[in-house]
Design a protein that fits this description.
The chain has 657 residues and is α/β, with parallel strands linked by helices. It has 22 helices and seven strands. The N and C termini lie far apart (87 Å).
């Protein structure tokens, strides 16, 4: 009989084969989690969407079914843990665990939104320009600005580009696919994040972390789906980054020389930061900055360990310094190469543009942007969990890589927050309030580790009470999950009160003026004889541009506008045009501008003429935008070259030719 273990130990190829098998299992485990979660989430949303539900803001039926679904999801997670502890395959138990996290996303967002075609916040506020971006990239896979014709995109296109391909594949308009894509992508990210945790710490703890971080992410960042998509796998990936920069050695032993480098982990860390750069700039600053902080920490650790050595260890110290720096540089190179896939068009356009870049994206300071986000002091389950997490990070940061990675991340968040607070003195910010979700999720994950350590102490003191602990944990999970719809109540309600692209409100109340959009779109098509993406529209009804891929002459506000669009100059041009009393004056004024002139005008009717309600930046005031009205004289369009149509509160003007 052959001794397999001894054969493996003596065969030179055995370690390589074992490593290959482990890598293959990782690919199957992570890839399977992604594919299965996408299929299950999309199928569940299709089933939910096929049933006629009462509106969330007029009935508690969908809220009740959401809670039921959350209970089922927690039970599925418990089954995965029990099966794993019973010796079942880690692969399929990890898949089940990942599906529990994906299911939590699908049920918690999909069921309350089951009777509407819109996502959280509907087509209002920030969701308006996000939907416009998805509509643009649904119309064409070519990277382009969401509003301005001929400009490369400034906002990272990653999440929106894949969303556009998703919508195109399903044959849906971008605005309608937005909800499906948002929920499916967050569900997939939750599954991937849970699978990463399962790989690091086992399915038992990984499942708990996955459900906890998913729930907290939904509370804080679900209205901003591309942020949620980064946070969920991003928190475990920060642990990978910390390990990759150190090399194959324990935290207390310090960084290794180049020979101890795990190049696959280095590449994975770079890939993650690069994907982040193609998705969300602010988070990339945090993730990349945290990687630099980690590297500096390892350099200091190497110096501290070698400074009191009895023998001269300068060569080893220099080799260690070099290794940490090389790993950081390689990670950075990989990140840059990935990021350039999304950023090359804009960087090239900016380098060759003669227009002075402008923009005010950072001119926003709400109340929560003027404080340091400290979720651990909330009087709820999230506050308790994150408080436990903070204590665990402080206690374990010098002994465990995961705690150290969390500590460096929190330091990074605090650094960006303090810098953002300081920059208010010179008239700008870093929008640091958007990092509160990262803080909460990091501390929630740490809180699970803290609870696990406390549980082990309880078991050591009182015997095997794991079942009791498990039941209490499950009840707490349900308690946290069922509060999420309450946290998102305003966002969900807006999805029902906004008018969708078919001119209907999901709560069955009379639709707003937006109900005329489909007819306006039809009239523009008839009168121009061209598809939407060949027309430039001047309008203040930006929801119209969210539904159809028309180019806009002017954006919603300067905060969302492309820095190369010259927002302020365009606003001045519009005011100049509005003063034209004759067609000749108007046409001449439009021809004098350096941008492509609008061939379609969508005004609101008033007794004084045709009006546009525009916006200007008034930062540091809060609100940071002032609305003002510009009125065009009807006489400027009293010429055969224009076709004027009045429809409801709108005046549609189409320039012939």
């Amino acid at each position: 009989m052959i001794d397999v273990q001894s054969t493996a130990e003596t065969s030179p190829a055995a370690p390589r084969r074992i490593l290959h098998n482990a890598r293959l299992r990782d690919v199957v485990e992570l890839g399977g989690a992604v594919v299965l979660s996408a299929i299950v989430a999309l199928a569940a949303l299709k089933v939910i969407g096929a049933i006629s539900w009462p509106a969330y803001n007029t009935s508690n039926v969908t809220r009740a079914l959401t809670t039921l679904g959350q209970v089922v999801i927690v039970v599925i997670g418990a089954i995965a843990v029990v099966a794993y502890r019973s010796g079942r395959s880690r692969t399929w138990t990890s898949w089940l665990s990942s599906l529990a996290s994906a299911g939590l996303v699908t049920v918690t967002l999909g069921m309350p939104l089951g009777a509407t075609k819109l996502y959280l916040f509907g087509l209002s506020a920030d969701q308006q320009f996000r939907t416009e971006y998805l509509t643009r990239l649904t119309d064409s896979p070519h990277l382009a600005d969401m509003t301005y014709d001929g400009l490369a995109p400034y906002y990272p296109a990653g999440w929106f580009w894949f969303g556009g391909r998703f919508a195109s594949l399903l044959g849906m308009p971008g605005w309608e696919a937005y909800k499906l894509w948002a929920i499916v992508s967050i569900a997939v990210a939750a599954a991937l994040g849970t699978a990463l945790w399962n790989r690091m710490v086992g399915v038992g703890i990984g499942t708990a972390i996955g459900l906890a971080t998913t729930a907290v992410t939904l509370v804080y960042t679900s209205p901003e789906p591309y942020a949620a998509v980064l946070i969920l796998p991003g928190v475990p990936m920060l642990v990978v980054v910390a390990s990759a920069l150190r090399g194959r050695r324990r935290l207390a032993e310090g960084p290794t020389t180049l020979s101890g480098t795990n190049w696959l982990a280095v590449a994975a860390g770079g890939l993650f930061i690069g994907v982040s750069a193609a998705t969300y700039t602010l988070y990339t600053g945090l993730f990349a900055g945290t990687a630099v902080l980690m590297a500096l920490g390892y350099l200091v650790q190497a110096w501290m360990q070698n400074r009191n050595a009895a023998v001269d260890r300068a060569p080893l110290r220099r080799a260690t310094y070099l290794a940490v720096i090389v790993r950081l540089v390689v990670m950075g190179v990989v990140a840059v190469l990935v990021a350039l896939l999304a950023w090359t068009p804009y960087l090239a356009a900016r380098s060759s543009s003669i227009a002075a870049p402008s923009g005010s994206a950072e001119h926003y300071l709400p109340e929560n942007g003027a404080i340091v986000g400290l979720p651990m002091f909330q009087l709820n389950l999230v506050g308790l969990l994150t408080l436990i997490g903070l204590i665990w990070v402080v206690v374990r940061a010098r002994r465990r890589t995961i705690a150290a990675a969390f500590a460096w991340t929190l330091v990074g968040v605090l650094g960006i927050t303090c810098l953002s607070l300081a920059l208010t003195a010179v008239g700008t910010t870093l929008l640091s309030f958007r990092l509160e979700g990262v803080t909460a999720v990091v501390l929630a994950a740490a809180g699970v580790f803290g609870v696990v350590e406390c549980s082990r102490a309880v078991v050591a003191r009182f015997g095997d009470v794991r079942t009791v602990i498990g039941v209490l944990a499950g009840v707490a999970a349900i308690g946290l999950a069922q509060t999420i719809p309450s946290h998102l109540s305003s966002e969900i309600t807006t999805a029902y009160t906004d008018t969708d692209g078919y001119g209907q409100r999901a709560d069955q109340h009379p639709a707003g003026a937006e109900s005329y959009y489909p007819e306006l779109h039809r009239l523009i098509g008839e009168q121009t004889g061209a598809p939407a993406d060949q027309s430039v529209v001047l309008t203040a009804d930006y929801g119209f541009l969210s539904l159809y891929p028309y180019w806009g002459f002017q954006g919603l506000t300067s905060h969302y506008a492309n820095p190369l669009a010259e927002f302020d100059k365009r606003a001045q041009a519009i005011e100049t045009w509005s003063k034209s009393e004759t067609t000749e004056d108007l046409v001449a004024a439009m021809a004098a501008t350096p941008w492509r002139s609008p061939n379609v005008f969508l005004f609101r009717y008033s007794a004084d003429g045709y009006t546009l309600r525009l916006a200007e930046d008034v930062f540091p005031n809060d609100p940071n935008v002032r609305r003002y009205t510009v009125t065009f004289s009807p006489s400027g369009f009293d010429d055969p070259m224009f076709t004027v149509t009045e429809l409801g509160p709108f005046v549609l003007v189409v320039k012939k030719g």
